[in-house]
Structure formats: C-alpha cells, structure tokens
C-alpha cells in the first residue's frame, strides 16, 4: 500500500510538472526558447507553444484526471523523445553561441532526468503494480478494504454462534437489509444503497472453524464482488472475546459502482467499526442503543447530522 | 411537555417539545418531580463544551415517578419513585462489571465523536452534549431513562425529594472525590471549590475520617456554608490570602495529604496576569480548559500525596507541572462519578441521619424560571449555591 502511494505521488508530481511547464510554454514561448538556448524566431515560438506547450498541458490533464493515466505517461515519454530531438538540433547547429550551447546542454540534461522519471512511472503503472483507480469517478474502481476489531464481554461460543447465523448480521450491519440462508453454505444478501438503489448478491462460506473464524465470499456472478472474514479469540483474563473483521469489496464500474463506493463512505473502516460497535451492543445489552439525537443508533451519516437532544415527534 | 433547552451560549429557553417515548426495551419514562441545575451545566451554558446543538434539553440531576416501562424492565413498575443517576450505563459491559459505570462501553451511540476528541468514549450522559450521546436531559416534565433496570434507585418511603435528589450526581461525585483520596487517620484534605460538589467533597472527607478539611474559594458565603454545614475545619479565601502560603501554614510545611479539584475547566486565579493568560488562550481556542487549580494542587500537595480530580475538564490544558508531579511521587485519580456504585450506601447514610444533603439548596423555583436560575447561579447572585426546579 505504501509503495503504491509513493508511485501515485510520483505520477501526481509528473502531472503537475506537465501542467506547469506547458502553461509556461504556451504563455511565454519566447522566454522558454531563450531558456533552452534555441533561436527565438516566430517559427520556433510556434514549435515551443504548440508542439511543446499544448502537448504538456494535454498530458497533465490526462494524468491528473486519472483517465488512462498509463497511456498519458507513455505519451509524455514520446514527448520527451521529441524534446530531445529538438534540443539535439540546437546543439548540432554550428551557428549557436557558447552561452546558448551551455543552456541547451543544461536543458537536455533536465529533459533526460524527466524522461527517466516518466519511463519509471509508466512502467510501474503498466506492470499493474498499482491499480489505476483511486478516485470516485465512474471508471474501474479499486478494491475497498476495511478492517476493524472490538472486544465483546461475552463467551466465545455465544459470540461465534450469533455471527455464524448470517441471518443475524442485519441486526448490526447497518447497510444490510437482509441475509437469507439458502442452505449448503450459500446465502442471499440484500443491501440498501443511497439514491434508492438496492444491491443483491449471493455468497458462500469459504471456510470456518468453530469458535475461531468464518470466511465468506460472493459467488463469481455477483455484481458486487466481496469477501470477508471474522476471527474470534478469547480475550485474556476472562475479558470476553476479541473479534477482528476484514472485508474486501470490488464495486463494479458505472453508477452502481459509485453507489457502492458511497455506501462505504469516505472511510470504509469507520462503517465497519460502527457495525462492530452495534454488534457489541446487541451481544452485551440485547439491542442497538438509541438516543434521541441518534435514533437509529450509531450511524456514520447521523454523526454529522444530529437531531437535537429532544424527544422524537409523535 | 415543557423543557429547558440550550439555545446558544449564555442562553436557555423553556419551550414546548414532544413527550418522550420508549426507544429501547430497557427504557422507562419518568414523570419528573424535582430537577437541579448543576455546576457542570454552567460549562454548557458558558459554551465551553463542544457539540451542543440548539434545542438540546439540559439537566442530568433529576428524580420522579415511573409512568411507563419497556418490556425489558422488570424491576420497576408504574408509580415507583426513583432517583436517576446521571451516567447512562448498561450494566453488562466490561467497564460496568468492574463498577466503572461512567465509562460504560455501550451507552454512547455517538462514541465516534467522543473518540475523535478523547481517544475513547466515556458513557452517555443525560443532557450533556452530542459527543456524550445526545440524550435529552431532565430539566423537563418527563424524561426517557435508558437502561432503567440498572440505574435508577427506588425510594420507597416518604423521605422528601430534597434529601435524595442529589444522589443523582453531586453527593456521590463529592463522595467519590473524597474516597479517591484513600483517607487515613490524621490526613489533611484540601478542597478547591466550595460549590455544591465541593461541599459534598468536604462533608464526605469528614465522614471518611479526615483530621482537617480545608475549603478554598473566593466567595465568603460559600466558605461560610462549608464551615458551618459541610464541616470544613479551615477556610481559605484566595482573594484575601495566598492559598499556597495558607496551606503551608495549616500543615506546618508538609502540604495537604490529598487535594481535591472540585472546580475543573473554568478556574479563576488569584494572580491577575496568569488568569489573563489562561483566559486569553481559552478564548482563542488554544487551550480548552483553565487548569489553575490543578497546577496549584500539584505544587502544594505533600510528596507522595493524591490529587483527586472531580471538577469537569473538557479538552486540553497548558503549563501542566509534570516535573513536580513526577519527581514528587504524586498520584492523580479522576473520573466522572460511577454513581450507580454509591446509590445504596449513600442512601443508607442519609437514612441514618449522617448527612442531610439538602443543606446546599439556596433557591427553589419553577421549571419555567430555569433561565433566571442559570443566570443567578452563574453570577452567584443572592448568595446562590444550588437551584432546584419543580416542573
């Protein structure tokens, strides 16, 4: 994860660099010509502005909007090659003065450095070391990972049995409407999504060990590819049961995908933590705890839009 | 019903609101017969506790009569007279089972908000901000009481409201403050703040066997009640004498064995510039609390002594004398009171005539007059110490 973050920061840097350089080339082609040691003629200004500047801006926008980022990075590499060719023409020109030659050499060195950065980033992305996602756009979505843990002051057997009956999950997983057992380790899950959408999928138990863990995954035909596992461990000194949950979701492209992404909010971990908080309440007190300001119990969305602490209207 | 609601900084209003309904199976609805304004309500009134919302019903010291119970409440029935503890606690989580009711792990549905500010969440509290649950309070005609099978204590005889009402908060809070001092024979206990909680801390320190109890405040009428009614052996008006010097004198240079902070986040200071420093930082939001009492308690406490903090703090303090605290083997013990723990034993003390908690009451008014009660209490008008409201 840290590695992929680094790559993205790098890519971001290149995108911003493209935008900055492109803007300078379009706005002040004469100054840019002088900077790289080229002759400041009207033709050279046109080359600087349109062949250089416009190209850089297009690449910058392409990279920053995360649409076909890898392609735009390779386009940058091609552009770098073009720049190097133009600079070599300047260096090969016997009419250039020594100071112009020095500037052209420095510019060539700079472009070589940038080319290396472009190639590295493009290779990393092409190799698929990093999923080309990260956004809330409608393109391919990254896999969402969420994990959370809690200690429940109940014996491990009771906690395991409650969770093992998957039909109990909607009691504390706020986004689930229902889970229906189909027998043979298969179950049908239905979730509420924002904007009145409903999502349904079928899941199967992929592994379980009594009082230790339960793992499940959506069947391959499901629109929302997801999997999860919950691990149980006795807490030390009779402190109840430690529960650790790990969920993976791969929302599909398109409108449904963004609905799923919204469902998990900006921080998917918070939703799972809230689910576990409600799970603990159900196990320890028998039900989800409600206040007048949060009548549905702990809900991420309700936390930011509280009712006043007054009884609900009749 | 009518209820006293927070409507902004320095502003409360009695208004019409819907009647409470059962939301959880272990709820009860209580028709309130007496309710009080707490010193900690002034922190809300003065705007120092974050996450208040316009229209929030205030009040966490109340008692009354059960008028409805959810299916999960089997120990209470209609008509039972009950005092309701201010911490809402489930009774079954790990904290409750250790008797740490005010850090109940289940009673705050808004725990994620509290966690942002405090790392972990304490329990939910009636009428005490959204980060502590967003529960309507008891300065009203009715209140919903969650986990009614765990909290409320039944009062079965005709003992008047005024003698048992304070079991809801200030008597147990003051008592716990004294209990945290582990008082042994010969101990000198200094109590900062002679407000209602301070009065009960002083009285409790005496009940628990302290040799001398020193009351520190700047209002003579409060110090007078401390000496005449709560049992303080010495009083210090810090606007007239230096607290540190007076404590040196009383303890012959040892320092008090235990120091109780019954003031909290809005402390005043006898040294003008230091007070201005904390006021300015608090106003600018760089520190939320003015820790003057804590600093003074740490500097004056005997080596190896105890600092017991029951005054309410909200966030962060500055210039905390950690060096003195560490090098001199001091201990600090704190907490919102675990009221449920103290209900039975303190009711027994009241019945045995060891204490009559009504000695702190100076003003009685109707719920409709709550806004005036807040102003009087805040400004210490008419020697105000404790206001009781009847709906």
From TrEMBL, chain B:
GO terms for molecular function: oxidoreductase activity; zinc ion binding. Its cofactor is Zn(2+). InterPro entries: ADH-like_C, ADH-like_N, ADH_Zn_CS, GroES-like_sf, NAD(P)-bd_dom_sf. Residues 26-152 form the Alcohol dehydrogenase-like N-terminal domain. Residues 196-266 form the Alcohol dehydrogenase-like C-terminal domain. Gene3D superfamilies: Medium-chain alcohol dehydrogenases, catalytic domain (3.90.180.10), NAD(P)-binding Rossmann-like Domain (3.40.50.720). Pfam families: ADH_N, ADH_zinc_N. Keywords: Metal-binding, Oxidoreductase, Zinc. Belongs to the zinc-containing alcohol dehydrogenase family. This is Glutathione-dependent formaldehyde dehydrogenase. The lineage of its organism: Bacteria, Bacillati, Actinomycetota, Actinomycetes, Pseudonocardiales.
């Amino acid at each position: 994860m840290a590695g992929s973050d680094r790559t993205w920061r790098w890519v971001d840097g290149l995108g911003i660099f493209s935008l900055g350089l492109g803007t300078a080339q379009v706005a002040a082609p004469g100054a840019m010509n002088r900077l790289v040691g080229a002759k400041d003629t009207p033709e050279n200004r046109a080359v600087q502005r349109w062949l250089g500047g416009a190209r850089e801006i297009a690449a910058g926008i392409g990279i920053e909007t995360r649409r076909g980022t890898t392609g735009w990075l390779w386009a940058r590499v091609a552009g770098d090659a073009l720049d190097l060719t133009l600079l070599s023409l300047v260096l090969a020109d016997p009419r250039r003065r020594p100071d112009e030659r020095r500037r052209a050499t420095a510019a060539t060195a700079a472009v070589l450095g940038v080319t290396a950065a472009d190639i590295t980033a493009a290779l990393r992305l092409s190799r698929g070391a990093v999923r080309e996602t990260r956004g809330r756009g409608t393109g391919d979505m990254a896999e969402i990972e969420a994990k959370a843990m809690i200690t429940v002051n109940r014996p491990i057997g009771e906690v395991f049995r409650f969770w093992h009956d998957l039909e109990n999950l909607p009691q504390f997983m706020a986004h689930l409407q229902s889970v229906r057992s189909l027998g043979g380790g298969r179950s049908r899950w239905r979730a509420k999504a924002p904007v009145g959408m409903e999502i349904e999928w079928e899941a199967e138990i992929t592994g379980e060990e009594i009082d230790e863990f339960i793992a499940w995954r959506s069947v391959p035909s499901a629109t929302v590819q997801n999997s999860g596992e919950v691990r149980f461990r006795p807490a030390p000194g009779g402190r109840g049961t430690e529960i650790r949950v790990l969920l993976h979701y791969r929302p599909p492209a398109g409108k449904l995908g963004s609905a799923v992404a919204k469902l998990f909010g900006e921080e998917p971990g918070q939703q799972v933590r809230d689910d576990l908080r409600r799970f603990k309440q159900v196990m320890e007190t028998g039900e989800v705890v409600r206040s007048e300001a949060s009548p549905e119990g702990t809900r991420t969305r309700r936390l930011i839009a509280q009712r006043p602490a007054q009884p609900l209207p009749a | 019903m009518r209820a006293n609601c927070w409507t902004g900084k320095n502003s409360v209003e009695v208004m019409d609101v819907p009647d409470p309904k059962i939301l959880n199976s272990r709820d009860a609805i209580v028709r309130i017969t007496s309710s009080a304004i707490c010193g900690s309500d002034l922190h809300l009134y003065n705007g120092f506790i974050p996450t208040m919302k316009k229209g929030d019903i205030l009040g966490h010291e109340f008692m009354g009569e059960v008028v409805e119970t959810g299916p999960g409440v089997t120990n209470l029935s209609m008509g039972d007279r009950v005092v309701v503890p201010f911490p809402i606690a489930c009774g079954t989580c790990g904290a409750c089972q250790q008797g740490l009711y005010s850090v109940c792990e289940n009673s705050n549905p808004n725990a994620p908000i509290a966690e942002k500010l405090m790392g972990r969440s304490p329990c939910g509290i009636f009428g005490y901000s959204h980060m502590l649950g967003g529960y309507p309070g008891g300065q009203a005609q009715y209140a919903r009481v969650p986990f009614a099978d765990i909290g409320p204590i039944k009062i079965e005889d005709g003992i008047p409201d005024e003698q048992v009402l304070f079991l809801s908060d200030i008597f147990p809070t003051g008592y716990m403050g004294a209990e945290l001092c582990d008082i042994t024979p010969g101990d000198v206990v200094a109590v900062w703040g002679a407000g209602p909680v301070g009065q009960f801390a002083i009285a409790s320190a005496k009940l628990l066997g302290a040799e001398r109890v020193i009351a520190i405040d700047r209002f003579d009428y409060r110090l007078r009640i401390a000496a005449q009614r709560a049992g303080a052996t010495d009083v210090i008006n810090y606007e007239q004498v230096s607290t540190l010097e007076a404590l040196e004198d009383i303890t012959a240079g040892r320092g008090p064995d235990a120091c109780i902070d019954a003031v909290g986040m809005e402390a005043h200071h006898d040294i003008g510039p230091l007070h201005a420093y904390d006021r300015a930082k608090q106003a600018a939001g760089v520190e939320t609390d003015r820790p003057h009492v804590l600093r003074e308690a740490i500097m004056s406490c005997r080596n190896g002594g105890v600092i017991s903090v029951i005054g309410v703090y909200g966030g962060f303090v500055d210039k905390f004398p950690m060096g003195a605290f560490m090098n001199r083997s001091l201990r600090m013990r704190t907490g919102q009171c675990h009221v449920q723990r103290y209900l039975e034993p303190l009711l027994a003390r009241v019945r045995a005539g060891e204490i009559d908690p009504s000695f702190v009451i100076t003003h009685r008014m109707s719920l409709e007059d709550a806004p005036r009660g807040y102003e009087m209490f805040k400004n210490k008008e008419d020697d105000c110490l404790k206001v009781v409201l009847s709906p």
